[in-house]
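Sharing a chain and its predicted structure for anyone who wants a worked example. Both blocks are below, sequence first, tokens second.
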Amino acid sequence: MKKIIKYLIIIFILLMFIPRVNAKNVSIEKVEVDSKSNENISENTSINGLSMIFNVDFFAQNDFVKYKIVMNNPTEKDYFFSKNISNSDYIEYIYEFDDNNEIIEKNKRTTMFFTIKYKKEVPIESLRNAGTFIEKNNISIELENTNNPKTRNIITILILLILLILLIVISKIIIKNKIIVPVLAILLLPIIVLAIEKLEIIFETNIKISPKPVCVRATELKTEKCEAFVQSGNYYCGSIENYGAMMSYGNLGEKGTLAVGDAFDCDVNNDGEYDKDTERFYYLSPEDGDNANNNIVLIYYNNTKAGLPDNKFASRYSNEIEGPNEAYLHLPTTEQWSNPLLFNNFERQIKTRGGHDFINDDGSKIYLPIFTYTNRSSRLVDVKEITYKCLDENSKIKEECSFLYENTNHSSKDNIQEYWTETYLNNNYFPYVIRGDTRKLSSEIMSQNTYVGVRPVIVISKNNILY
């Protein structure tokens, strides 16, 4: 056993002393961007010896960055690239030389180009949930000495190592000469060193694929003129002093911090534009009011009719306990709001404000349905998302959440009074509504004669907004 351990120690020492030739005089002098598909692509590089680190952020398929790399070889040896670079599922790596000769010539500066391209589109499901796709790659390229053919075959190294081990064993068992072991090691060491002489260039890539954000911060707030009338001595706009004044909704917010009421313009129709007039939303809460949820809810600035802004149209909720099967028809469709990063076709368990999936009606339980917002990229708001930050103990809407009654009769008697939520009371066939005149979370009897507004909320990953 001691002999075996001794042999292993000898072999280990030999291997430790085998140098990896890095030809210190060969160097990367410069790396710079030669061209890129989009000026908005963020990138930076760093050099450490013969290692290069490339950090690139892509936005769309076929985005690319092409780098120009200048290498200096002042030695008396030519080196050539020994292999092609393997591509990943989504990213393509291409290298090429000025003269199509993959040789770093002796006593000369050589220019090569290294292109990183977003070739195959990352599945939208990955981007919708995570917001970004990250790929890290470490590409090792051997620059082989053209005058040393042994460098071209790793098998040569293995054969020599095996031969060394066999000679050591034979010398001990057959020749029984203790002196020959170190002698053989010393004789074979230069041969092994020669066999693995090579340069190695490392391309370390950190690729982040981030689609264009769905929402960006608004640069100005929407306003309405207070033209509401008096009812029971109360001005709908809040006080008599407000009558005739301009009111603004939401806040511009602070960069890097997401607060309730922050105003965003969202490219929901996927036309590449952030329209402040028809694509204004306000951050309301995490999905379902749950802080552990990375998906967030933004509420639209207006009600909709057949998916288009309308502050006068009213719809029934439903004619039975089967979810908002009439109201949802006026939410924007997946064709109207077609941004693929929006969650859609929501399947929702309709619940009461207490979180139950049933209504207590004189001691009997009437169960609420699981409702699917078929072909819709928005849904009605859940009361949990309103109570998250916007209601006081009397169900009154807090002042900082005044955006909830924008485009209601809070500001003008010509606007509709209220709009539906998705949530029922605990013990009645009443879904809650947001009322503009009283600025409260209230309820309406669901009947053939109950018509109120329909206001969409969208659900997206927090990673897909720019805040």
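Comments welcome. The radius of gyration is 35 Å.
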